[in-house]
Amino acid sequence: MAFPKKSINAKGKALDDKVLAQLIKIQRTEITEHHIYRILAAKTKNAANRRVLEKISQKEHGHNDYWKSVTHADVKPSKLKIFVYVTIAYLFGLTFGLRFMEHGEELAQKTYKKLLKQFPKVADIIKDEHVHEQQLLGMINEEKLEYTGSIVLGLNDALVELTGSLAGLTLALQNTKLVSITGLIVGIAAALSMAASEYLSKSEEDSSKALKSSTYTGMAYIMAVMILVAPYFLFKNPFFALGTTFVCALLIIFFFTFYISVAKNLDFKKKFLRMAMISIGVAAINFVIGLIVRKYLHVDV
């Protein structure tokens, strides 16, 4: 790409090609995000969310205009990034998609800081990215996040209770068919019990949301049950099945913790390690219990 010869910094000095290339890249990011916010705003039915997205879109367009005044280049947006982030927002929720995109932009903050001396206006742009847009994103009201607590409750309970139960049953019975059937029955019964408890709990606070909250809890629990029990239907070796179940549990914890951490701007590492340690710890205790049961109660299937 041929760069304009008259591009200058705040001190009136001509920019070299390396700096100009950085600015072109930044400018493309700003105009790309302007289009992403604009498209999402047009697709959003919630009026409050639409206003939030339109405001951010205008801000990003303003950043693009500033860099355009510096580079004198008419930069086109990245169609691939627009497609990817709009699709992510559609599949995983508006808040997750936008925060995921903003997280990627945070990685470029070092570049912004390097440009501060040459372009004092960058300080205002950094402030916009860190303060104004985060406040706007925090205003977004989304049902998927509203019921996150119910989903977390279902997943947490299923991961802790079922991994522990399967570990104990594996050592006590050492028969994948029996463990799979027992785990499935116990898991579904526990899911229904947990959903009912969530309904009773939420009905005292807000009866209009109790049914939906309990449904999210029950569905999350059953989903975890199906994934964790599946290895016992697929493999004959009970210990290999148990190992696969542990891997599945860690993957569920990883992906869901990542989702929550991005969507709610929380510490991913801390939440992941805590949840993983609890699940594995309970499973280890139940594994020992299974050993004791098999040895002293003489279980032989």
Descriptive notes:
- The chain is an all-alpha fold and 301 residues long.
- The radius of gyration is 26 Å and the shape is elongated.
- The N terminus is likely disordered.
* H and E string: HHHHHHHHHHHH
In DSSP terms (H or I, runs of 4 or more residues), the helix count works out at 12
- Rough shape? elongated
Q: Share of helix among residues?
A: over 70%
Q: How much of the residues is beta strand, in percent?
A: under 5%
Beta strand count: 0
Separation of termini? 73 Å
Unreliable stretches covering 5 or more consecutive residues? 1-6, 8-12
Please identify the structural class as seen in this structure: mainly alpha
| Sheet of most strands | none
Gyration radius, rounded: 26 Å
Number of domains: 2
Which oligomeric form is depicted?
Answer: single chain
